[in-house]
Amino acid sequence: MIKVIVMGAMGRMGRAIVQQSLASEDIEIAGCVERKEHALLGTDIGNGIILKSSIESVVQDSEQTQASKIPSSLSLPVIIDFTSPEATINHLETACLLGCPMVIGTTGLNKSQNEKLAKAAESIPIVYAANMSLGMNLLFKLAALAAKALGNEYEVEILEAHHHKKVDAPSGSALKIAGVIAEALERDLDKVAVYGRQGSHGPRKPEEIGIFAIRGGDIIGEHTAMFIGDGERLEITHRVQNRNTFASGALRAARFAANASPGLYNMMDVLGI
Ligand code: NAD
């Protein structure tokens, strides 16, 4: 059995991960954690799971009940984190102290937070992916392939759409698509990315990679990479129909992380694509 601690368990992703974990035969929920102000802390959120306010309290409880039977190195849970960048970095410090592997789906990490993540991966296994779905990770591959095949003759624009509660833009997945295309075309994304267009910006430069974010309603996540040529346009689109696709990806990542050596992995490592 692989034990998991679900951070942000009452959030949209947290709930989907809890549901899939309960339905899974090889995943056991060691604990569910929410932010310190959450109204349901200390209550039973279903299936006898008491909502906790820290990783430490979950690990202490689990050690008290099981340490006599299972060596602690084997009982270390995988921490699954879909919360906020600040919270994720705090959880990362605790994970390093305890030696727990992590699966991180939180998006919007800044440069210094990404550096902290890479540093932590020197001591624990971390799977970090802005999008945990199989289809999207395949899109990353296909976008790189299309960019290489079509080359500089085709202009690249990326469009993403999400629900109105999403706090970061553009999405981590849109940035990743832009990143793989820029790499395939040997361009520096920092120099060629254009985030939305407004006013008198002049003609489009051929090397630009345009990135646009739509926000509204309950759209879970849609991404299109466009390769626009003279006389034709190739579009590769991925649409999420429900959050289960991310949750099952997160559990696949947890199975992988539980048995991995320290290091920073992505979903392509997990899925072997
Ligand atoms: P959400 O707001 O519904 O859930 C976040 C939860 O985290 C909330 O319940 C919040 O109370 C909790 N939280 C905040 N601080 C915390 C702390 N310190 N300790 C414990 N819990 C804390 O958001 P969501 O839609 O579930 O998305 C969460 C994150 O996951 C976002 O960054 C989103 O972009 C990302 N996301 C990633 C993927 C992926 O495949 N990688 C998919 C969907 C969403």
Portion in beta strands: 15-25%
CATH homologous superfamily heading of the largest domain: NAD(P)-binding Rossmann-like Domain
Largest sheet, in brief, is: 7 strands, parallel
Q: In the CATH hierarchy, what is the architecture of the largest domain at level 2? A: 3-Layer(aba) Sandwich
Q: Estimate the helix proportion, in percent.
A: 25-40%
List the keywords:
273 residues, alpha/beta, Rossmann fold, Dihydrodipicolinate Reductase, domain 2, 2 domains, seven-stranded parallel sheet, five-stranded mixed sheet, 37% helix, elongated, binds nicotinamide-adenine-dinucleotide
Describe this structure in words.
- The structure is a single chain.
- The protein is an alpha/beta fold and 273 residues long.
- It folds into 2 domains: 2-132 and 243-271, NAD(P)-binding Rossmann-like Domain (Rossmann fold), CATH 3.40.50; 134-239, Dihydrodipicolinate Reductase, domain 2.
- The protein has 9 helices and 12 strands.
- Helix 1 (12-23) packs across helix 8, helix 3 (85-98) packs parallel to helix 4 and helix 5 (134-150) runs parallel beside helix 6 (172-184).
- The longest helix is centred in the middle third of the chain and has 17 residues, at 134-150.
- The model is unreliable at 68-73 (pLDDT under 50).
- Residues 7-8, 10-14, 33-35, 38, 82-84, 87, 105-108, 129-132, 246 line the site of nicotinamide-adenine-dinucleotide.
Please outline the helices and strands.
Elements: E1 2-7, H1 12-23, E2 27-33, E3 51-52, H2 55-66, E4 78-81, H3 85-98, E5 102-104, H4 111-120, E6 125-128, H5 134-150, E7 155-162, H6 172-184, H7 189-192, E8 193-195, E9 209-215, E10 222-228, E11 233-239, H8 244-258, E12 263-265, H9 267-271
Parallel strand pairs: 1-2, 1-4, 2-3, 4-5, 5-6, 6-12, 7-9, 8-9
Antiparallel strand pairs: 7-10, 10-11
This protein binds nicotinamide-adenine-dinucleotide (NAD).
Residues 7-8, 10-14, 33-35, 38, 82-84, 87, 105-108, 129-132, 246 line the site of nicotinamide-adenine-dinucleotide (NAD).
